[in-house]
Amino acid sequence: MQAIVLGSGAGGGVPQWNCRCPICAMARSGDRRVLPRTQSSLAVSADGDEWLLVNASPDIRQQLFDTPALHPREGLRHSPIRSVLLTNGDVDHVAGLLTLREGQPFRLHATRGILDSIAANRVFDVMAQGVVERTEIALNETFSPVPGLSVTLFPVPGKVPLWLEDGTPEIGAETESTVGAMIEAGPRRLAYVPGCARVTDGLKDRLSGVDALLFDGTVLADDDMIRAGVGTKTGWRMGHVPMTGEGGSVAALSEVPIGRKVFVHINNTNPVLVEDSPERRSIEAAGWVVAHDGLALSL
């Protein structure tokens, strides 16, 4: 199995277009301690020929340009992307669908709840249904989006997308709105969980024994954005478990047998983005990798 982290940043990427927080300023100035990052997306293949795209980032055009394995290879129009899978309806995971509208056939896989949110916004009709087949996937049901890969979607604690919030949303519920993907090729298993509000015992059981885990790394501490002075919401309110602190993912997953632990979906205010910072060293010492765009895994 081959996996490529196309985008390792959270919504807005790094640097965010309108942000002058210290980390964005470092990235914008060319400081080599902070690599620019596009918004969250992953590509997976069993054979390097046919690919599954997991989440369609608003930055998908640049991500595809930067990834030769996903370039057109034959004829006048072609793409090795055979299927797209959505893990939630967040803008940073679905807006790229609008870029994938140029008459290119592929299958769009998601739970009924996520597909309904897409169908409710007619702008997504630019993906003509005669060209892009929308396929409902039931939770805990295994399917094959491309040859050689088997995928099972499972619920993780989360919340509805911001653009669908109505009043005070329920946070931490396990529904079809936020899912993880267990991706298998032969005996190898990769779990992709770019959004998660808390680590439950059930989730730990689900992740036990995987060869690689790509997990929600939005915030280091629950109040990252407040400390940075650029927001008022905590990680919990946004539906993202912090890396550290009580209930944080590093401690919660420390005793779970996992081959390789990788943080993805990292917000621009998260200090682990600064290479060789105390925060980065602490996370790496705990056995985690901080993903960057283009990070390739071979399992």
UniProtKB/TrEMBL annotation:
The annotated pathway is: Cofactor biosynthesis; pyrroloquinoline quinone biosynthesis
For this protein, the record's InterPro entries field holds: Metallo-B-lactamas (IPR001279), PQQ_synth_PqqB (IPR011842), RibonucZ/Hydroxyglut_hydro (IPR036866)
Keyword Ligase found: no
> Keywords of this protein's UniProt record, alphabetized?
PQQ biosynthesis, Transport
SUPFAM superfamilies referenced in this protein's UniProt entry, alphabetically: Metallo-hydrolase/oxidoreductase (SSF56281)
Task: Report domain Metallo-beta-lactamase positions.
Answer: 51-266
Give the GO biological process terms: pyrroloquinoline quinone biosynthetic process
Q: Which Pfam families does this chain map to?
A: Lactamase_B_2
Q: Does the keyword Transport apply?
A: yes
Q: Check the record and name the NCBIfam families matching this protein.
A: PQQ_syn_pqqB (TIGR02108)
State its role: May be involved in the transport of PQQ or its precursor to the periplasm.
Record family assignment: Belongs to the PqqB family.
The protein's name in its UniProt record:
Coenzyme PQQ synthesis protein B
Q: Which organism is it from?
A: Methylobacterium aquaticum
Record lineage:
Bacteria, Pseudomonadati, Pseudomonadota, Alphaproteobacteria, Hyphomicrobiales
